[in-house]
């Protein structure tokens, strides 16, 4: 089964391809099939993910999966949330992962409440007007580290310290990160939803056709 991933983020693509490989699902980045980006005017991960999934499906004619994820910092009232990717720009920096990390460390200076959460919301649609989209949410609690630690991952991984493991996402192997990350959790839930709602039905139809 071929599904378009409504993202051109190579980090997301690599993680999700690894997750969905056992299902025999081929995830194709939308940039390989279409131009343009979906509008993301909403304030929640769910609404933006649904917008991206519908847009990609409409443009490609394929089922689509979209992810909207972000960092929710307790001391900032849950922000930056849906604006996570552009966090540093409000402080005059050019958009980049490194600048996002730099800006966060600067803004957290002197803040004692270091609690945060990374949230990933995955939405899958069979077609643009699918009335029953699949929704999977993964959330992981973290602490904002005082300084970056580790060389792996992307985004805010170097400063997302997972207390029970005593390391940041950037210090983890890909396998450990998949097991504990927000996207790992949402992906596993989505895998089960796709298997139960999309693939199981197809298998039953094929089996019936052989009888």
UniProtKB/TrEMBL annotation:
It catalyses: ITP + H2O = IMP + diphosphate + H(+); dITP + H2O = dIMP + diphosphate + H(+); XTP + H2O = XMP + diphosphate + H(+). The keyword tRNA processing does not apply. Substrate binds at residues 7-12, 69, 154-157, 177, 182-183. Its cofactor is Mg(2+). InterPro entries: dITP/XTP_pyrophosphatase, ITPase-like_fam, RdgB/HAM1. The active site is at 68 (proton acceptor). HAMAP family: Non_canon_purine_NTPase. This is dITP/XTP pyrophosphatase. The lineage of its organism: Bacteria, Pseudomonadati, Pseudomonadota, Betaproteobacteria, Burkholderiales.
